[in-house]
Structures are given as C-alpha cells and as structure tokens.
Design goal:
mainly beta
C-alpha cells in the first residue's frame, strides 16, 4: 500500500521559512515524479513544485520561483520543500503527490499539512 506522509507544516510569520518533508513508502518510486501542490481555502488546488526521480530536473510555479526549493533523497524515499520568504498568500494545505513520468495526473497523494503565514 502506497503511503505519502507530509510533515513540517505550521504557523510562521511573513518572511519566515519552513521545510516540508514527504515520506514515501509502499513501492519503489523509481521513474516517479514527486510534486508538491497546495490548496487555499475557497480556491482550487494548484501546482507548486515537482522533481524528477533523478533529481536533475525541477519545476516551479511562477509564484514560488526563487523562494521555494524542492529536493529528494531517493535512498530514504524522502522529498522536501524548502520554503523561504513566505508570504500570507502561501497559506494553504500542502500536499505531496507522486506520478509516473509518463502520466499527466498524480496517482498518489498524501493527507496534507497546513501552512499558515501570518502578516
């Protein structure tokens, strides 16, 4: 059974930093793209960042470029999202997700972790 478990969310002041972690288990994730997506209250879920299995290619939403960094540790099946210079508009539930590189949509999802940025 595939499990993605996020951690590291919390309350932080604007300008602060947080690091989210995603622990993946239940299968080998070779060939999987790992992503972070978020959903704010009253808004649709949106893409934040993604990383290929090898880690040599990353993707970011324009709204987080230069502030967020995605990385992964395949030996430990961990994916990270380092978030710096946080803004109130980054407040959302952040989800870790996985998809095969050949697929457009994510196959597996975590339960989400709340990030709240106060002004």
């Amino acid at each position: 059974q595939v499990q993605l478990v996020e951690s590291g969310g919390g309350l932080v002041q604007a300008g602060g930093s947080l690091r989210l972690s995603c622990a993946a288990s239940g299968r080998t994730f070779s060939g999987y793209v790992m992503g972070w997506l978020r959903q704010a209250p009253g808004k649709e879920r949106e893409f934040v960042a993604a990383i290929t299995w090898s880690g040599d290619t990353t993707y970011y939403a324009d709204s987080v470029k230069g502030r967020f960094t995605i990385s992964r540790d395949n030996a430990k099946n961990l994916v990270y999202l380092q978030m710096n210079s946080l803004k109130p508009e980054d407040t959302a539930v952040y989800y870790c997700a996985a998809r095969l590189v050949t697929r457009r949509f994510y196959d597996y999802w975590g339960q989400g972790t709340q990030v709240t940025v106060s002004s």
